[in-house]
Amino acid sequence: MGVLSVLVRALRPATGVAAITAGALALSGCGGSSLSQSGGGDSGDEVKIGLLVPLSGVYAPLGEDMRNGFQLYLDQHGGELGKRKIKIVTADEGAGPQSGVPAAQKLVTQDQVTAVAGVVNSATALGLRDFFDESKRPLLVANAGADDITGARKSAYVWRTSFANGKVGAALGPAVADEVDGGVYLMASDYAAGREMVAGFRKTFEEAGGKVAGEEFTPFGKTQDYQPYLSKIRGSGAKAVYVFYAGAEAVSFVKQYKQFGLAGETPLYGTGFLTEGGVLEAQGDAAEGVKTSLHYSSEIDTPRNKKFVEAYSKAFNESPTVYAVQAYDAAAVLDKALAKAGGTGGEELAKVLGSIGPIDSPRGQWSFGADHDAEQKYYLREVRSGDGGMVNAIVRELS
């Protein structure tokens, strides 16, 4: 994940792979049964769990959502996971691996946590792979999307409760091929996440008979004026557009797409990060009609999700995002793993993670696949006007 020049509370980016550099061990606080920081050690049957999320820097909004989701699950289960009292040790991932890697190392080597959950940045997750594998402690990745985390660099100790970049794009490909009669223009920010999101979409889109009208990658974190690219789209004769943008770039692109006049004539598709959370709030009615693929929306019409949305909104005075759900589910995974394992050691937990069965999630039931990634439903969402503003309404499930 690169660093966006400006990120306010409303803008929540997705992740990619950046260069990994070494850093000194960072200081991080300890948490009691809540996620507030305080000191303390183990006692009795208490189990320490590390929560590694960005609490400072440009990605702090994601970290706040993830911390809230994890905390909500604990609150709903009396501060216990697997019928064991949990002590949370919270560490600040910061903006990337320079801060995130040493913070995670401290959680394991000094704080002696049994497992770690969180991680927003893909570079941080990839940089920690060997450390957790050698330390024999489970790492539950609750956001970072790089394909290699559960692909080429899969580890027995690294599991993911979120998504793989390519799979989010791939889920949408057949639907766009079915809905669009003509070529589709592909565009994304030029970094690893953008290229993986486009590659996943393109593969399934073309397999379903779709035709690509053009492809463009815009400089990541540097592009403010999209008009030259929008002119290329119009000149290509494309009948629709598929993009991956997140955070500040998503807001700028969607607003300029509307201002340029394409929104009324050329349907816009993308992965869900294009219109997720505070990003959608900042886009306003410029995003109306945009269709995206994602594994969660607060608009999922099930008793399970309605109950979750009500509880989350009451606790934090805002609607839950996909980031909050991914961390909520990381807590649910640890709950089942601790209940099933014969002990609380890292090796014992890792051995049972693949056999804990389905997670009853607000997003819908899901399970870990052989690649340690979440096997889950993806939804076709469309931005529509709802109570209090725009929402990502569910159109249907994606096969």
Descriptive terms for the model:
399 residues; 20% strand; single chain; alpha/beta; 15 strands; disordered N terminus
Structure, briefly:
With 399 residues, this protein is of the alpha/beta class. The protein has helices at residues 60-76, 97-109, 122-135, 165-179, 192-207, 227-236, 247-259, 278-283, 303-316, 322-340, 346-353, and strands at 47-53, 80-81, 84-92, 115-118, 139-141, 158-160, 183-190, 211-219, 240-244, 268-271, 291-294, 367-368, 374-375, 378-386, 389-398.
Describe the structure in your own words.
This protein is an alpha/beta fold and 399 residues long. The chain contains eleven helices and 15 strands. It has helices at 60-76, 97-109, 122-135, 165-179, 192-207, 227-236, 247-259, 278-283, 303-316, 322-340, 346-353; strands spanning 47-53, 80-81, 84-92, 115-118, 139-141, 158-160, 183-190, 211-219, 240-244, 268-271, 291-294, 367-368, 374-375, 378-386, 389-398. The strands form three sheets. The protein has a seven-stranded mixed β-sheet with strand order 8-7-9-10-11-14-15, with helices on both faces. The chain has a six-stranded mixed β-sheet with strand order 2-3-1-4-5-6. Strands 12-13 form a two-stranded antiparallel sheet. β9, α7 (247-259) and β10 (268-271) form a beta-alpha-beta unit. It is globular and about 65 Å long.
